[in-house]
Every structure is written in C-alpha cells, then in structure tokens.
Amino acid sequence: MGGGYGEMLVAPEANCFRLDGRVGDEAGCLIFDNWGTPYAALKRAGVGEGDDLAIFGCGPIGLAAAVLAKRRGAYVIAVDPVAYRREAALRLAADYALAPDDHLPAAVRDLTSGLGASVVLECSGQGAAYALGLEALRIGGTLVAVGEGARFDLRPSEGLIPRHLKIVGSWYSTMAEGREVQELIVAGAIDPLAFVTHRVGLAEVPQA
Predict the structure, then answer these.
(1) What is the DSSP letter of 34?
(2) Which of 43, 60, 182, 201 has the smallest number of CB atoms closer than 10 Å to its CB?
(3) What mean pLDDT is reported for the chain?
(4) What is the pTM of this model?
(5) CA–CA distance from 48 to each of 43, 123, 177 (Å)?
(6) Shortest CA distance to 53 belongs to which of 71, 36, 78, 35?
(7) φ and ψ at residue 202, rounded to 5 degrees
(8) Which is nearest to 66 in space by CA: 165, 199, 191, 186?
(9) Rounded mean pLDDT of 78-92?
C-alpha cells in the first residue's frame, strides 16, 4: 500500500474511491486525510450548533477543522504559535485566534463566558498542546486526539476525573465520510484548495 508520493500505486479495490467528475485531482487528493480526518473527528465529538471549540494546531488539518466546525455552527477558537497560520484561520473561519503564550488556558475561558471550551480538537501532535487543551476544557468537556506522536504527563486524579472530562481518539476517516466530504465540495460548501500555497513536482518533494 505504500507509494503515496509515486506516480502510481497498487491498492485493494475496497480502498479505492471514485471521484465525482466535477472534482479535480488536486481536490481529490485532499478529501480523505486533509478534510476527512477533521470531518470524522468533529462527528465523533458531536460538535454542533452552540459549541465552543478550540483547535490546537492550525496546519492544513486544523484549518480544515475550523471551516467544517463553523459550518456545524460552532464558535471556533484557533490556537497556533505561528502568526501566518493564525491569520489563515481567521481568514477562513475562526472567530478568534490565540498563540500558546497568550495566557492559555485562561484566554479560552475569557472567550467562553468563563466556562472553557466544550470541545478541544488537538491537531498539532505536541505534548504541551495536549496538556493545555485539557486545561482549556470546561467541566464535562471533550478533547479529541488527532495530532500524533505526542507525550505528556496525564494525572487523572488532578485534572481529568474530578472535571468529568472525556478523551476521544480519532484516526483518519471512513469511505462513507469521504463521500460526504466530496458532496460538500461538489455543492460548493467548502473549497478544498483554500489553503494550498505551493505546488511542486515529484522531483522537488524531498527539498520541499
């Protein structure tokens, strides 16, 4: 199944997905990982109208999450240390953007009537972000783990159990969810290429 950066690869038929003729190859490449991953994560957390959502990490997946969450009616707070990513989040969908050193998690509580976020979507894969994300939740809130590779010190008796928090893992998306994302693209509800900034050929990939 390897070979995602090759011109061709062999895959089981069950893992193949037919693109709608109105969806180009570039957009098609972004359906599952880039858009499907946050689409599935938001579904698993039940994010909807009136939720206060904090997204930690505004790379392509975090930015897509902001767009999709806004469509679901959530109030979206974007968190990222990089200014141009915060600016992109605000341009695309976020209601507010914070840097990690902007007095988190108190700043999130200030933006949510003193309660904290109802859902945190962790997309950065940084241990410090996971720890801050848990602190930024309100009582009964949910952290959705999307960013991989993180390590952090979790002490359930101090911050998890008495606050009735939930941690949900969400990895990739199903074929059915990919079709739902494609339907959003075809309907013009999302622009899958909204944050594409560079295009390079295969030979340039290692340097890029």
Answers:
(1) I
(2) 201
(3) 94
(4) 0.93
(5) 9, 19, 17
(6) 78
(7) -55, -40
(8) 191
(9) 97
